[in-house]
Amino acid sequence: MIRVGVLTGGGDCPGLNAVIRGIVRKAAQNKAEIIGIKNGWKGLIENDTIELGLESVSGILPKGGTILGTSRTNPYKKPDDAKKAIAHYKKLKLDALIVIGGEDTLGAANKLLKENDALNIVGVPKTIDNDLSATDFTFGFDTAVNIATEAIDRLHTTAESHHRIMVVEVMGRHAGWIATYSGIAAGADIILIPEIKMDLDEICDVLKKRHARGKGFSIVVVAEGATFKEGQVVTQEEKLDAFGHVRLGGIGEILAVEIEKRTDFETRVTVLGHIQRGGTPSAFDRVLATRFGVKAVELVLNKRFGYMASLKANEIVEVPIEKSVGVLKTVDMKLYDIAKLFFG
Ligand code: F6P
């Protein structure tokens, strides 16, 4: 019987439990044992584990978050942590490790793989931001887009009744996928993304023209990582996380103040924040996550170490983990051009 570890790292994401469930089911079919590693890389560094049998994954499919817990621990941040992680991998007598994560968690997996022949790692791409290269979609994104879309629909009511501009700040880090998808889906009047520098004169011009043609309200969707022409990203604090990332957030407020000042239209801001990551996954994400989980076990059984499950043209395929990290997948400009058709 082979023993396979599984960990979930980075921000929690709707669909993580569906992946874990898929892994455990597929493993059981093939008489493989699954060991859950708690709280991402932290659990491997500290040897904090839990047995994952069929009973432990029963009923978790619709649940948000991760039953394993997660952390933003980077095994390369402290001098001996990577060594500890490798030592515990051996101590646990693991034949393989399934790493479910985004750019940071998979980036660490890639580094561990490169430096240690003894580690057999396969990956599953996760993030609401949808910014991982080498997969068409990550699970969690669809749910986040649905949550943001519903929120924008609701904000329409107040925008229209009060003749206001509503600025909605969404997540997505340095990519504007959530903003673009939710903005198109909810009929936003302007969508601002990190891929294109913001020009306040242009933005206010669009809003003024819209109001001049009798539309007394507007919806502006702004991605948290969007920047002004001469500006930097807006952060909530100076501190960096273990992977060197800033905590984004706050651009919506600045934008709203500037818009109101320049247009004289009453403006309000809503920051959706972690609500976008919370709660039950959409049907699309449950299916994608389940397919990814099953594929991850197949990769282990076929000894395709160094690869991760990926969605390409609706097929679940394998791609080298290193292809997914390092290069950010930014918004497709053909899609953004479609969004622009509806501006103003
Ligand atoms: O990567 C997912 C994400 O939700 C980003 O969209 C956001 O910038 C970040 O994580 C927030 O991280 P935290 O939960 O650590 O505040």
List keywords for this structure.
binds 6-O-phosphono-beta-D-fructofuranose, alpha/beta, Rossmann fold, about 350 residues, about 40% helix, 2 domains
Structural notes for this entry:
With 344 residues, the chain is of the alpha/beta class. It folds into 2 domains: 3-139 and 281-324, Rossmann fold, CATH 3.40.50; 143-277, Rossmann fold. It contains 11 helices and 13 strands. The protein has helices at 16-29, 41-46, 81-91, 103-115, 141-162, 177-186, 200-212, 251-263, 283-301, 321-324, 333-340; strands at residues 3-8, 33-37, 49-52, 96-101, 121-125, 165-170, 190-192, 218-223, 235-237, 247-248, 267-271, 307-312, 315-320. The strands form 4 sheets. Strands 3-2-1-4-5 form a 5-stranded mixed sheet, with helices on both faces. A 4-stranded parallel sheet has the order 7-8-6-11, with helices on both faces. Helix 1 packs across helix 9 and helix 5 packs across helix 6. The longest helix is centred in the middle third of the chain and has 22 residues, at 141-162. The structure holds 6-O-phosphono-beta-D-fructofuranose (F6P). 6-O-phosphono-beta-D-fructofuranose (F6P) binds at residues 11, 102, 127-129, 171-173, 224, 247-248, 277.
